[in-house]
Amino acid sequence: MESLGQRITHYRKKIGISQKDLATVAGISPTALNYYEKDKREPNVLILIKLAKALNITGGALLGLEPHPDMITQSRNEFLILNSIRELNARGQEKVLEYISDILDSGKYGEKK
Question: How many domains, in total, are found in the chain?
């Protein structure tokens, strides 16, 4: 059975981000995250919620109460973009969507099919 620290590490590595990036997005120190991943300390409930949200999983999955979710594999850039967008208000998010639409419509940067 995986420990909490092992689950945090598993989900972080599945996304492909560093401890520093996850700590920044979750609003905790990299040192604290390192302690949690090594099972030297246990995060409180508020930190667990922040970690689950940052990892885009449920709290139950992080605690091992639910099976590992079938996560869509995200690149580091996708992770950082998504979490940056979450920090914007509704107007800012709309603006980002407009930029993305313009970029895709240009055909210059879209995925080749």
Answer: 1
Domain, as residue range, for 73: 1-113
DSSP collapsed to 3 states, 71-103: CCCCCHHHHHHHHHHHCCCHHHHHHHHHHHHHH
Residue found under tokens 């969507």: 97
Place of tokens 């996708």: 78
Q: How far apart are CA 54 and CA 92, in angstroms?
A: 20
Query: From residue 88, how far is each of 8, 43, 84, 93, 99 by CA, in Å?
Result: 26, 27, 7, 6, 14
Q: What is the CATH number of the domain that holds 112?
A: 1.10.260.40
Structural tokens at position 46: 């508020």
- The distance from CA 40 to its chain's CA centroid, rounded to whole angstroms, is 22
pLDDT band of 104, cuts 50, 70, 90: confident
Please work out, in degrees rounded to the nearest 5, the angle formed at the alpha carbon of residue 96 by the alpha carbons of 104 and 103: 15
| pLDDT per position as a tens digit, 11-57 | 999 888 999 999 999 999 999 999 999 999 999 999 999 999 999 88
